[in-house]
């Protein structure tokens, strides 16, 4: 019974939302025609209307009753339509996840395109004109959020380690694709049967350059759902981002040449120069805006609310500025995000950080949804010129050139890589070369209508094929080939210590060997960053904090949080535990500190840095996933069962090793931890409260962490309401709580919520 | 420029290549570098390594230098204390940083991983007793953090404590209140860094072409 009910309701919801979408689409389409009619109607009657309008004033007032309720749709039509489209696109997204079977098999992008097709079909059936994926709309409004989201959360370590490979794939691979497809298509066009002999070489090359680029939107949409290992993800994704420069140059180049009709050697050389200008120029623009953004964020300590806006606006300006000069906007945006991020995040408050993260994810999600739906609608709408041979050969050649390109380049690249790319890796990289909306928009920009229709048809076919066929089959293929999945990183502090240790070790060995390798330059960059750049771009004393500290603090905080939430009743026998650690010190008996207890100053220092840098390491963990904001280990670990288990473990461990002389004195420099009182889940055992002021040595680490901020006894009781938690269902709350706890800069919020810096 | 008059003849190279796994070109380049560092002598001493300017900025330079003079890293048994090493020992230490060759079987990969982790373990275990105690681990963390000047020892200690805690929990799991944790043994260390993929991370690219001439000859400028 219950099963039946739950089974039908998702479908019902799906149908309802689908019909709503269609309905609204119709409405949105029709006013375009209705408006036109109204305009023409209104003009001749305008005078008479005016007259009749004036007359009532002069004559008797009872001519026309006061309109209590009026219908004035044209006034709000544009924003209304836009909002409705977005709303219904999002409802569709919701609907998909209610139908579990489908969403497991079919990636979301396919479903969205399908919906777009339906909507477009319905609109067309009613003889209206559906909205098309306007190029300006796409490039100026829909694409930047996705790219910014990708660039801001780019995993820097993986990216820079594989930079060479990514660049080779992006530049050489795309060039190869473009010329191979263009050239072969020209050969195909010479076939008499195709009747496309009018397409000359330059047009074919133009077509090749449009269709050759791997699309970041499509790649993101598909790869996010399959969770492959970081290396492959960053290879395909990085390639899709960096090939923008190549695409831009080739497109403009061939477009110019196609008009001219001939190419000289000088033009070709100019093309090469232009490539460097476009890419390096784009990056420079991004870097400039990134530094500006970082510098601005240094001074925002008094206006925390507008901090996220700076990040967004500077990035958008970087994109637009690059587009002004026909430089690569995507690379500019990526560079801006990458440069800005470490400094901005050291400066802004926790809430701003959360806001930025959520807004970016939200906008990019909306953009992506809209793009795919519009793609579907435009497919139904657009003028098509279906030419069997052209389309089929385009498809075959795309696949062929991709495979050949990847295999050939990998053969060369593997000579320079430490971790070689296996055949499986190559297959995934080749198979993951999806085309998407960028190709469509570029095709839409073409001016020559005759060939444009044919090109557009072919482009759409390729996009559909890659997104549908490749997108749907890549997941079972990944399973079948047993490709390494994303490592469930446990974020162990030992691994972090050893990561840093290895960095220095390898740098040292390179120095001893005498060759300036990858580690040497990275080390030099880090040192430069530390001594000069951080001083300028990071406010206050946060510029000297090391990464290891932040990582450790995150761990401590995590454990402390778990302990807190799992039960205040964890009264650790701290006095008894000192003996055990003394045992551990047996090897060196004469010790000033027999018990490695955390002294007060260290505790405060740790907490200060903890709150300062917790988020830095948190977002290092897989925050580039689009759909799961909750995919880092913090949130994963917050499941009820693990809670209980870890609670017990934690108690034991804490009691064994670390005691906390929780004498709480006032220290003005400590930033306080404060919880939002609306989290009623946290009840506290009332018997605990009197203990805090008096004999703190029995209180567990976590409670001390919490209440260390409660300097004034009056507030301590409020603080104490954070003891117990109901786990499991409270997981999202816990995570939020953690965020608040973790990073509590002085948000000048309302007084009862937070305290500013002392 | 280091001269090669006293270089071992090629049969020795072949011998070394077999033992350490380097290619012949790599060995000759490393030999050249060895000669550069040791000012054409046959033996390398600590002072020679200390002269490398780039190494001065490295926070763990002491341990790196010590690793070259650690008898546990050599194949043959040399009596302590080791104050100078020959080229073969140099190569032996360097061979720990060779990337694993392709087409290694699973057992061979495990063996490589174990060797690299053994090297790391020896670097941490400075008193050579087979376990990494809390003090030694603290020392490691302190050195790593000495890179950033503005720190107190307390913080470093806290981190090392937490790290030991983690090791204990991973390896020993549940412990009675009267047990204590002596230190990290090699088996625990292996378990700790299981998912670390050390075989690919602890590798540098040894050149097949001679680029030492392009590098600054720091040791000569002292």
TrEMBL record, chain A:
Sequence ranges of Basic and acidic residues compositional bias: 40-60
Annotated spans, Disordered: 37-60, 684-758
Pfam families per the UniProt record, alphabetical: Na_H_Exchanger, NEXCaM_BD
Cation/H+ exchanger transmembrane domain: residues covered: 86-479
Protein location: Basolateral cell membrane
GO CC terms of this entry: basolateral plasma membrane
Superkingdom assignment: Eukaryota
Single GO molecular function: potassium:proton antiporter activity
Record's keyword terms, sorted: Antiport, Cell membrane, Glycoprotein, Ion transport, Membrane, Phosphoprotein, Sodium, Sodium transport, Transmembrane, Transmembrane helix, Transport
Regions crossing the membrane: 12-30, 80-99, 106-126, 138-154, 166-188, 200-222, 269-293, 358-380, 386-414, 426-446, 458-478
Low complexity bias: start-end ranges: 699-710
Sodium/hydrogen exchanger regulatory region domain ranges (all copies): 575-665
Keyword RNA-binding: no
Protein name from the UniProt record: Sodium/hydrogen exchanger
Biological source species: Oryzias melastigma
Automatic annotation (TrEMBL), chain B:
Subcellular location, record wording: Cell projection, Lamellipodium; Cell projection, Ruffle membrane; Cytoplasm; Membrane
Gene Ontology BP term (one): cell differentiation
Domain of life where this protein originates: Eukaryota
Alphabetized Pfam families for the sequence: EF-hand_1
Signal sequence bounds: none
Topology class, membrane: Lipid-anchor
UniProt entry tagged with the keyword Lyase: no
Transmembrane segments: none
GO CC terms: cytoplasm; lamellipodium; nucleus; ruffle membrane
The EF-hand domain, residue ranges: 112-147
Entries under SMART domains matching the protein: EFh
A single GO molecular function term of this UniProt record: calcium ion binding
Keywords: Calcium, Cell membrane, Cell projection, Cytoplasm, Differentiation, Lipoprotein, Membrane, Metal-binding, Myristate, Nucleus, Protein kinase inhibitor
Family stated for the protein in its record: Belongs to the calcineurin regulatory subunit family. CHP subfamily.
Family annotation (PANTHER family): CALCINEURIN B HOMOLOGOUS PROTEIN 3 (PTHR46823)
Protein name as it appears in the record: Calcineurin B homologous protein 3
